[in-house]
Design goal:
The protein is of the alpha/beta class. The protein is built from nine helices and seven strands.
Length: 219
């Protein structure tokens, strides 16, 4: 059960869950978000908590996945500036995050859908290490063969840039929440959940950069 972020996310998740129940689904795996909780500092996390609670109360055997910051977010947020001038301009402060490759999230979901014993469980998924953006920029530079520098910017500057790009106010608020939370080290952790369940190590930032070096400007 996977839906896009937005103000109608709980409604969409509810409709998907209801359809699954009407169809007689025997197991629902729901993709939530890292640290989803009713008291979380991000609107996305709070909305996910609503849908997590609904899934848990549905009567259908369920598994909830709470993945951390996607490595693939870096392509959306920084690939253009890295390719153009070798810099990452991001409002993440000095915060660390347990970055996970989204391919590992899908691998994990496939595993729990095809192996018994995961019903009623919630898994928080991270990559192998919690990294700040200086470490990420260093890894990207190494992978593409040119120096890359992380330049922290104020959240207000990021908001202005997103407005100029034409993003709607809800999405700007959604992303700003995360920037503020991650800057305060709300996401500074990594765990061994992925490897414990699947039996293999999650992809690290170095492998991610190797696999997507072209997106960051490597010829």
């Amino acid at each position: 059960l996977l839906g896009p972020p937005g103000p109608r996310a709980p409604e969409q998740s509810s409709n998907g869950l209801w359809a699954a129940k009407q169809a007689g689904a025997k197991h629902v795996v729901r993709m939530s978000a890292v640290n989803a909780a009713f008291n979380a500092p991000t609107i996305n996390s709070r909305l996910h908590a609503l849908s997590d609670a609904e899934v848990a109360a549905s009567g259908i055997p369920y598994t909830i996945l709470k993945p951390h910051f996607f490595a693939q977010n870096l392509i959306m947020m920084a690939a253009g500036s890295i390719a153009q001038d070798g810099a990452m301009y991001m409002a993440m402060g000095e915060g660390r995050v347990g970055i996970i490759d989204s391919r590992d999230i899908s691998d994990f979901a496939a595993h729990v859908l095809t192996h018994p014993g995961h019903e009623g469980k919630t898994y928080t998924l991270t990559g192998p290490a919690s990294l700040n953006m200086h470490q990420v920029s260093e890894a990207i530079g190494k992978g593409i063969g040119k120096p890359v520098k992380y330049i922290p910017i104020p959240v207000e500057a990021a908001q202005q840039a997103m407005t100029q790009m034409g993003m709607d106010p809800w999405m700007i608020n959604f992303l700003s929440d995360y920037m503020k939370a991650y800057s305060s080290n709300w996401g500074d952790f990594a765990n061994g959940e992925f490897q414990r369940v699947t039996g293999k190590a999650p992809r690290g930032i170095d492998q991610f950069v190797r696999d997507f070096a072209g997106a960051f400007g490597k010829k």
